[in-house]
Amino acid sequence: MRLGLLLAASVIFIILGTAKFKWHPFLVLLLTAFGFGVGSGMPLADIVKSVNGGFGDTIGKIGIVIIAGTIIGVFLEKSGGAFAIAGKILKLTGEKNVPLAMSFIGYIVSIPVFCDSGFVILTPLAKALCKKSGITLASCAIALSLGLYAAHTMVPPTPGPIFAAEMLKADLGLVIMYGAIVAFIAMMAGWLFAVTCASRVWIDPAPELSEQDLQQRTASAPSAAISMIPILLPLALIVLNSIAAYPSNPFGQGGLKSFLLFLGSPVVALLIGVFIAFTLPKKKEPSMFSTTGWVGEALTSAAIIIVITGAGGSFGEVLKNSGIKDAIAEPLTKLNLGIWLPFLLAATIKTAQGSSTVAIITTATILKPLAVSLGFVTPPQVALAVVTIGAGSMFVSHANDSYFWVVTQFSKMDALTGYKLHSIGSIIESLTAGAAAWAIFTFFL
Length: 445
Description:
Oligomer: single chain
Largest sheet: none
Radius of gyration: 22 Å
Number of helices: 20
C-alpha cells in the first residue's frame, strides 16, 4: 500500500512539476527518481546506482536512434522532400480530396518529423490547396494535425514509442507493424471528423504561398520516391530483423540471417536512412553537416529528447529495484482492465500535463516491472501494449499542450474553436486507436 501511494504521489508530482510549475521534464523525472527511491526505503547507494544505471542504459540503447531519426527529419524538411511527398500524395488522392491528402501526408511525414514541426512545414501547403479548392482551412488543418498526431505517438522512430519499446523490451519490428496499422485506423477516424465536423467551420485559407510559389518550392525538392526512401527503408529493415529473429528461422540460420539481423538493428537501419537523407538536397554544401548547419540543428533538437528519456530510464530503474512489482501488481491485475490499463494511465497523464512524450515515458516506466503480471507476455502482446500507451498519449490535446497552440495559431483558430475541433478530434482519434489495439489484442492474439 505504501509503495502504491508513493507511486501515485510521484505521478502527481510529475504532472504538477511539468504542467503547473513549468519545470523541465528532465529535472522533474530525475527528482522523482530520487524521491521515490528515498521514500521506498531503498539504500542510498542503490538509489544512486539505479539512477546512473537507468540513465546510461537507456541512452546507450536508444540515443543514437533518436539522433538518427531527428537528422532524417531535418533533411527531409529543409531539402523540400516533405513537400515532394505531399505533392505525390495529393496527385493520388485528387485535388477534390484535399483533407484526405493532408491526413495521409501527416501520417507519413510525422514518422521521422516531430508533429509540431510537421504542422509548421505543411501549413502553407494546406492553405494554398484549400484556397485553390475553395474549402475551409479548418478541415485541412484538422485533417493534417490529426494525421501527424497518429503516427507521431505510435510509430517508431519517434522518441516516445522508441522509449516505451525499450522499457518493455518489445520487438521494435512488431511495434512498427502494429503501430502503423493502429495509427492508420486512427488517422482515418481523424479524417472523418475533419470532413464531417471541422468542415462546418469556415476559416479563410488566405495562403502565404501562391500556386507559383508552391511549384518553385517543389521544383527544387528531390522526387517523392527518393524522399520516401530514408523513411521507409529503415522501417523495412527493422521489420526484416524481427522476421529473421523468429524461432522458425524463415531465413535459415546462416549468413543471411546474421546479415539481416545486423542491417535491421535500429541503430544500423536508422544510420542507413541518415546517409540516404544526406543525398536529398540538390545543392550540397559542407555547412549542412557542420555544428551550425542542418546536422547541428538536428543534434540540438535531439539532445533535449535524449536527456528526458534518460531521466525516464532512471525513474524506471528505481521503480524496478524498489520492489514495487510485488506491491501493486496484484491490485492492478484484479482490476482486470487488460490492454486498457496502459491506455488509461497514458491518457490521464497526458491530459493532466500536456506532453505526449512525457505521458509515454511515465506510463512505460510504471508498466516496466508489471508487464508480465498484467498479461503482456508474448512479443505481440508487449508490442501492442507499447502502441496502446501511444494511443492514450493523444488524449486530450488542449491548452497545456504546445501542439494545441501550434495548430490553432498557424491555422488561425481561436482557443474555443481549437477546443471544439483539435481537442475533440484528438479524443476521437485516441479512443479509436485504443479500440483498434484492444480488438487486435482480444481477437487476433
